[in-house]
Amino acid sequence: MIRVPKGLKPLFDDLTNGFAKRATGERVVFLMLAAVLVCGDRTVSAMVRLLGWIDRVNPSTYHRVLSHRRWNATRLAKIIVRFIVNQYAAEGAIRICGDETVDGHRGKRVYGKGRHRDAVRSSHSHTVFRYGHKWVVLAILVQLPLCGRPFALPVLVALYRDPKTDRQEGRRHKTPVQLMCGLLRLLLRWFPGRKWRFAGDGGYGTHEFARFADRYRKRLTLVSKFAKDANLHRLPPPRRPGASGRPRTKGKPMAKPETVVARSRKKKLRVGWYGGGTRRVEIVTGTGHWYKSGFGLVRLRWVYVRDLDGTHRDEYFFSTDVAMTPKAIIELYGARWNIETTFQELRSRLGLETTRGWSRLTVLRMAPCLIVMYTLVVLFYDQLGATHQKPSPSSSWLGKKHLTFSDMHACVRRYLWIEWVFANATGTEAVQKLSRPLRRILEYSLTQAV
Predict the structure, then answer these.
(1) Closest alpha carbon to 307 in 330, 339, 336, 276
(2) What pTM, to 2 d.p., does this model score?
(3) Can you give the residue ranges of every domain in the chain?
(4) DSSP label at residue 227
(5) pLDDT bracket for residue 119 (50, 70, 90)
(6) 28 phi and psi angles, rounded to 5 deg
(7) CA dist list (Å): 61 to 81, 305, 369, 420
């Protein structure tokens, strides 16, 4: 068994007890912790080899826990979300963000594999495709001490399937926007008394998503990119008594945002910017009702932003909450960028794209567990005592002022090696007999390897 930090014990107990069989819960937790320690490919075999040094294990039981055992990942996600909300967002509106990432996974028999556009390698004139899985990820933005930026902690993950796969399985096809709406419905159902502010890139700045947010406008706000030539209208005039014919769905058209910007005086602001820090910007803002034929009106506030430092192009954003200030809109969208950092660190530190499972249940469980493992590592680090929270001196350099995920990952790895592996593996008593400088070299080598 592993001795987890005191503040994290209720979460691990709830996760273990969230399974029909406690033994299955323990195996899933052990696999996730082993995924933090192993190097190279995050395969079940690699994790079982590590667990074999700690205790005698039957490899088949760990292989079957992903592909055959019955357990509900949504129930585990609810436990993690509840812990984060209680610990870091006990009051006020909760900031969340979402995006998609493509997990490269080749193979003829891999379930759910498709050909997807690689947003990182593609440009406006050239498109690069990758074969694998597209994961729609919803994350909670959390600001931790000594960190220069908020961390995007993934909590809910859904697999996007192409129309052919959905047709073969008799399922209604859902776009990434519709999948994200489904994940947001879970949060709204789990926490009926809380308000959420969601930030997404231009792919989520659709009229469909805006209508969804407007439907739950008392509890959900959408912030995303906006089109400079969007169709804005006033509300239709009241219907006269006794009037015949179909009621009007929109009022008089309003000037397009780009027209308003061209003839308006711009206001200067200092706002929080991508990756921390602040920037001076010029803004123009306005309100209106976004119209799409056949779907009606959505009330919103739009904001035009010009970066006075000249490193970012001019952008238009919008919020479905017209009472939201332009500063809050810009800063929430800027905080959305942290989920891109999360995806990069998942690949470089936690081995995303190195899994080898191909069956349906394994695919639907293994990569999402790795993605949510990022959240557990950050929570694990935040609950460690001051003794274990000290990063290695070699991870600091001149000019570095803030903690990074690599620091947290190294500290958690060091804790797991000392308190779990060395404390339970046979023959590790010899490690305690080593000189202190030699032990520090050993700990550094184990914690820095990825």
Answers:
(1) 330
(2) 0.94
(3) 6-72+362-448
(4) -
(5) confident
(6) -65, -45
(7) 28, 55, 18, 21
Q: What are phi and psi of 132, to 5 degrees?
A: 165, -145
Residue 403, pLDDT score: 87
Instruction: Supply the Cα-derived Rg of the chain in whole angstroms.
Output: 25
Write out the DSSP string of 245-303: SPPPS--SB---HHHHHHHS--EEEEEE-TTSSEEEEEEEEEEEEEEETTTEEEEEEEE
> What's the pLDDT score for residue 2?
75
* Of 442 and 449, the one with more pLDDT: 442
Number of neighbouring beta carbons within 10 Å of residue 145: 6
Residue 331: partners with Cβ closer than 8 Å, 6 or more residues away = 271, 272
d(CA 77, CA 290): 34
Helix (H, G, I), strand (E, B) or coil at 39: coil
DSSP 222: E
Instruction: Print the SS3 string covering 327-395.
Output: HHHHHHHHHCCHHHHHHHHHHHHCCCCCCCCCCHHHHHHHHHHHHHHHHHHHHHHHHCCCCCCCCCHHH
Helix (H, G, I), strand (E, B) or coil at 422: helix
User: Does residue 439 contact residue 337 with C-beta atoms inside 8 Å?
Assistant: no
Q: Which two tokens stand for residue 101?
A: 């990432």
In the predicted structure, residue 318 carries a pLDDT above the cut 90: yes
Instruction: Summarize the confidence of residues 65-69 as an average pLDDT.
Output: 91
Q: What is the dihedral of CA 331, 337, 342, 348, to 10 degrees?
A: -140
Q: How confident is the model at residue 441 (pLDDT cuts 50, 70, 90)?
A: confident
